[in-house]
Amino acid sequence: MRGDNMEETAADRANLAGVRHIVLVLSGKGGVGKSTLSTELALALRHAGKRVGILDVDLCGPSIPRMLRVQDSAVHQCDSGWVPVFVGQDKAIALMSIGFLLERPDDAVVWRGPKKNALIKQFVTDVAWGELDFLIVDTPPGTSDEHISTVEALRPHQLLGAVLVTTPQAVSVGDVRRELTFCRKAGLHILGIVENMSGFVCPHCSECTNIFSKGGGEELAKHAGVPFLGCVPLDPQLSQSLEEGRDFIQEFPKSSAFPALTHIAQQILDTSQRSS
């Protein structure tokens, strides 16, 4: 038994040895845009010249392969485990998701907790990431045992911290407050809070309408004593880029969401440089 554990630890270290910083993207509820933020954060860091990977552990809703237009790809085996799918013509972003392991895209992952937890641990230990500056981990909603498995599996490595995503309204902010409690109980450093869907900027007149109210994320960050990373407005161009698998950071620099996303990425970069 002891030998098996030692072997697993050695493999774990080998596959994550080249990853400099790991960032978890969390929220207390679904539908707030964790996968969107994970994707755009990865693209922004890539355009800043960094080597980036995405680990999609949202096992019941693996949407990132479609957002990056690689949903028809398959993973392959090498001597050290699974080879991630590389995104784009320059193969600049490495991606691993359960979406690549399903026989059909509409298949549901109807698994009990132990099987999900085992796959999460396998994703951590058995993916050959190579050399990365950042590994972005897109998590499922809530504070379930899947989160505990993810944090525990990544704890021995270069875990920079967690970005928490909320929408402005009180219901979402309340759920993210519980996620803050989870992070503190798990000893997970909080990099900051992002308020997503923070107003809709009309593409015709540029007037901003606060559909879901405004300021809940910033108020929560102030109350909790953690950084507020910024507001990302609802933007039809961002939605379009995700639907079509296009690089929003490269193609829509004049969008109202562009400066918000690049500012969030810059704060992650600044934090990583301070921690090095």
From TrEMBL:
Component of the cytosolic iron-sulfur (Fe/S) protein assembly (CIA) machinery. Required for maturation of extramitochondrial Fe-S proteins. The NUBP1-NUBP2 heterotetramer forms a Fe-S scaffold complex, mediating the de novo assembly of an Fe-S cluster and its transfer to target apoproteins. Negatively regulates cilium formation and structure. Gene3D superfamilies: P-loop containing nucleotide triphosphate hydrolases (3.40.50.300). Heterotetramer of 2 NUBP1 and 2 NUBP2 chains. Interacts with KIFC1. Interacts with NUBP1. GO terms for molecular function: 4 iron, 4 sulfur cluster binding; ATP binding; ATP-dependent FeS chaperone activity; metal ion binding. It comes from Geospiza parvula. Belongs to the Mrp/NBP35 ATP-binding proteins family. NUBP2/CFD1 subfamily. InterPro entries: Mrp-like_CS, Mrp/NBP35_ATP-bd, NUBP2/Cfd1_eukaryotes, P-loop_NTPase, YlxH/NBP35. ATP binds at G28, K29, G30, G31, V32, G33, K34, S35. This is NUBP iron-sulfur cluster assembly factor 2, cytosolic.
